[in-house]
Amino acid sequence: KLGARRGVSPWHPALAGAVRRQGQRPCPLLRTRTLSAHRHGLLQSRNVRMSFLVGKTRRRVAEILTNPSEFVAVHPLIFDMRHVGGHRYKVFERVRLAGLPYSFVYEAEVLRAEDDGWVRMHATVARLVRMEMEFRLSDHAQGTQIDETVSIRSVLPVKPLLKRLLSEQHKQLFKNVDES
Questions:
Q1: Parallel, antiparallel, or unpaired for β 46-54 and 143-154?
Q2: Digit-coded pLDDT (tens) for 88-107
């Protein structure tokens, strides 16, 4: 039945059109709960957009983002990446939260366009946070323009924290890429 899966009401945007087409009227109480869930990130993803300019060619930036040893050398938080097969890597990351060091390991998939126009990374951290990053690479008079979009999905209210953390770490990441 529509809206029966895991507490998603018929007011969920993905189901709203189907509910209206069937002539059903969702319960107003469910609507309130679902809208609150949307605000707290239970049912929607939030995109973070950032742009960077580095003095490297598009091909070189794509190589740095997709070569594990080069990526680890420029990334401020990732300290190791191990190939597990195909385009998948085991990623080891260390971050300070509230002044305390926290380390975690997760698997990520790294994909690259043949023309070096984009690099995509997909990861699920601790089965709680799913992140998809897309780096659009375009030629610029001073090197390469990087337009990054990060989609964050989580059942936890961590999006504001992750947005700030990603903004800081990726600013440092691309500064390091520029200086490498």
A1: antiparallel
A2: 999 999 988 778 888 889 99
